[in-house]
Design goal:
It contains five helices and 17 strands. By secondary structure, it is of the alpha+beta class. About 35% of the residues are buried. This is Catechol-2,3-dioxygenase.
Length: about 280
């Protein structure tokens, strides 16, 4: 997966603030088939038992997150093969999970929510050689009905949990001001715009992926960030190529007036919609 290995700047990890740690752990392990490592005060979820993709952290006095704030629109887990998508579709159907399903030209996707309302996409990419790029270097990403019966032709066994090579393919954010976010992510973090939906949605990537980060104002135009005691995304992590790249990004963000906090292997910052981002290298 060249789009999710260095030097691409991909989303490595996300932390969610939750109300019911046990119930959320059960959802992500039993419904999504992830593996859980439980500590005294949080749960680390992975596809392979080693690399944490999602961390669940309970809030002491939580308030439910509502749609009229900025934050997470959905987290998207990229499966290795189309057969994997077919198998998890059958699994969801057996559990009676309410699903959305779309064909985006570059990918095929299923949509659902966890029990605390966080959006989730489960998808598989089409061969990158089939993606359609324009002369302006934008990629065609439409939305049509997923051909479910065709997908189910890929079923060749039982669902056995989240495949070990699953990664966070992208994240999609609800944002307050699209132009401010555009400047932060392109001028500051070095992402390139690959698709626009008018003045309401923007998709950005590195390394010619169809998108590592999506953002829209559909339910969040001029909305405030979620409060610290509200459930939902607490932070997400972008993995960079090396320490030098992280330093260059930091200098660019400082020039834009962004706040910077040092981390052991990188730094954290906050985007114009109030999302906390950890920029790391390893």
């Amino acid at each position: 997966m060249t789009f999710h290995t260095k030097p691409a700047q991909f989303i490595k990890h996300m932390t969610l603030h939750v109300t019911d740690l046990e119930a959320m752990t059960n959802f992500y392990t039993n419904v999504l088939g992830m593996q859980a490592t439980i500590t005294a005060d949080e749960v680390h979820l992975s596809a392979d038992g080693t690399q944490t993709l999602l961390t669940l952290v309970p809030l002491p006095s939580p308030e439910a997150h509502h749609s009229r704030t900025t934050g997470l629109y959905h987290i998207a887990f990229l499966l290795p093969t189309r057969a994997d998508l077919a198998h998890i579709f059958v699994h969801f159907e057996k559990l009676g999970i309410r699903l959305g399903a779309s064909d985006h030209d570059v990918s095929e996707a299923l949509y659902l929510h966890d029990i605390e309302g966080n959006g989730i996409e489960i998808y598989v990419d089409r061969d990158a050689q089939t993606w359609e790029w324009t002369d302006q270097h934008t990629v065609k990403m439409g939305t049509t009905y997923l051909q479910v019966q065709d997908l189910l032709q890929q079923v060749n066994g039982e669902w056995n949990g989240m495949p070990t090579n699953t990664v966070i393919g992208h994240i999609h954010l609800s944002v307050a001001n699209l132009q401010a976010m555009h400047d932060f992510y392109t001028k500051g973090l070095g992402y390139e715009v690959v698709t626009r939906y008018g003045n309401q949605a923007l998709f950005l990537s590195t390394n010619d992926y169809h998108h590592h980060i999506g953002m829209n104002t559909w339910e969040s135009l001029n909305a405030p960030p979620k409060k610290p005691n509200q459930t939902g995304m607490a932070s997400y992590t972008i993995d960079t190529a090396n320490e030098q790249t992280a330093h260059e990004l930091k200098e660019r963000l400082l020039a834009l007036g962004a706040t910077i906090q040092p981390l052991q292997f990188g730094f954290s910052t906050v985007d114009p919609s109030g999302n906390t981002i950890h920029i790391t290298f390893s």
